[in-house]
Amino acid sequence: MNKKKFIVVEGIDGSGKSTICHYIMKLFNNLNIKNVIRTHEPGGTPIAEKLRNIIKFSKGENFSYKTELLLIYAARLQLLDNVIRKNIDNNWILSDRYDLSTFAYQIGGRNINKKIILFLQNFINNNIKPNITIYLDVNPIISLQRRKFKTYDRIEKESINFFSRVRNYYLKIANKSKTIKIVNANNNLKNVKLSVKKIIYKLISP
């Protein structure tokens, strides 16, 4: 078996990330691979979860994009230092979102200057990169239809135009990267899972 790997699942809200992360865990279990740590962003540690709650559900006060960005990086630093760095040498890591989300949502969606993002990346010493990122690409209109029966958090309440900008930035980066695999998440779940299964099996094959 190859050395343990870091896998990230990305996509806009409603793309099916949680479902696919659960499916990947099932694939690992079927292959009798037990040393897998599943996490998510923002969150993954007690402090990071508190920051997640602030980011997603704060009300009654003006919440600037700069505040959102800094809280995201604070949560990421907690996850890096307390989960990922400590476990990546001996375990598989599976994360629902990672730093690609920040680029897509904060640069593409919020129009924050890329130099600020890169500065913060350097500041928290984020030198751990995924071996593979599975990007679930979905039309924002379809993602909205999938989310219509749930209670929206602060970010999920953004406009279709916002999510279109986020998606476009995801694709801009994904189309230039060899480690980002684009999966058509507009397809039915069976086909999405089949595509993901091929990616995972290729990654873990000796």
The number of distinct helices, counting runs of at least 4 residues, comes to: 8
- How far apart the termini lie comes to 5 Å
Lateral arrangement of strands in the main beta sheet: 2-3-1-4-5
User: CATH superfamily, called what?
Assistant: P-loop containing nucleotide triphosphate hydrolases
| Shape by Cα distribution | globular
Radius of gyration: 17 Å
User: What characterizes the major β-sheet?
Assistant: 5 strands, parallel
CATH topology: Rossmann fold
Task: Average the pLDDT over all residues and give the rounded result.
Answer: 94
Overall number of strands: 5
- Total separate domains: 1
Which CATH C-level class is it? Alpha Beta
Q: How are helices and strands ordered from N to C? A: EHEHHEHHEHHEH
Question: How are the secondary structure elements laid out?
Answer:
Blueprint: E1 6-10, H1 17-30, E2 36-40, H2 46-57, H3 65-87, E3 92-96, H4 99-109, H5 114-123, E4 132-137, H6 140-147, H7 160-174, E5 180-184, H8 189-204
Parallel strand pairs: 1-3, 1-4, 2-3, 4-5
Helix pairs in contact: 1-8, 2-3, 4-7
